[in-house]
Inverse folding.
């Protein structure tokens, strides 16, 4: 099996990490080596010096990308979940990967649904003005112009959504 | 093949990177996946924000270790060459790795020889007081108290030294 980075982009609370968490053991059961990368993981280690300014968020993604490219080219399936809201940084991340080793998944959940879910209460704080530059509220999320997979999550189970992702990965030749 | 990190420690100009550079293709020829990590590589990417203060050098090693552990546990042979002069940081690096996935190579070249080699002229500058806290001159290098492999380089070719490292890796069961 060749490695690849499956990069989940989408609004906060769109379901990126939940999907990646559920997908990881499924890929492992298929004999695939898997590593999970997301904010909760890297901000304790690799990027613990960084905050949430625009510049720091970009640096966070740059360091994660360095790690993801090394793993992907060594036959690991990297499941990375990051808001990564702009096309320019997502294009840059793709370019850092070897050809065909980057698969962009757009978790296309409407902001209204994300606000309803809001497990950490961050939308509430952003709407109250307590958090500034929050993606989806007062900072834009650009819909990807180069998504390899686009998925809807409203009214669907994680299971159902991941079945769609797995089918697409098969179709694209990443898994058998 | 199980992965491991082969960590070269030693004075500046002791020969760490030269050995690792020569060893990488030899391991690849054996069908082993290899990644090289050293200052010249990571300071352009992963740690480009860091300088050479004691704190920054520690942070540099922490980030490299994060990457090395991920690669090693995914069956990659990581060849890492860093001065890494203190026992406490080397112990910490070993502890971050899964059991048996860290192999410490002490490149035991006397400081007099390193001063003679000095390909970048850094010892010259340190001796002239133009670089401060330079390992081997005005900052200590602690000989490892837990080296798995100790090699001498004086009067020996890189080829000869790496043959010794390869023999030792076989003996320890890391390669066949």
């Amino acid at each position: 099996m060749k490695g690849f980075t499956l990069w989940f982009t989408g609004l906060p609370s769109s379901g990126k990490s939940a999907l990646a968490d559920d997908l990881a053991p499924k890929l492992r059961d298929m004999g695939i080596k898997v590593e999970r990368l997301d904010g909760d993981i890297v901000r304790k280690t690799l990027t613990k010096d960084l905050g949430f300014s625009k510049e720091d968020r970009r640096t966070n993604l740059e360091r994660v990308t360095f790690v993801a490219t090394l793993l992907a080219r060594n036959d690991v399936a990297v499941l990375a979940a990051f808001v990564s809201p702009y096309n320019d940084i997502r294009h840059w991340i793709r370019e850092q990967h070897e050809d065909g080793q980057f698969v962009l998944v757009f978790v296309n959940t409407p902001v209204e649904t994300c606000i309803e879910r809001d497990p950490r209460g961050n939308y509430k704080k952003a709407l109250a003005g307590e958090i500034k530059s929050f993606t989806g509220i007062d900072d834009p999320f650009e819909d990807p112009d180069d998504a390899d997979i686009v998925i809807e999550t409203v009214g669907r189970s994680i299971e159902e959504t991941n079945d769609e992702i797995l089918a697409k990965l098969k179709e694209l030749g990443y898994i058998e």
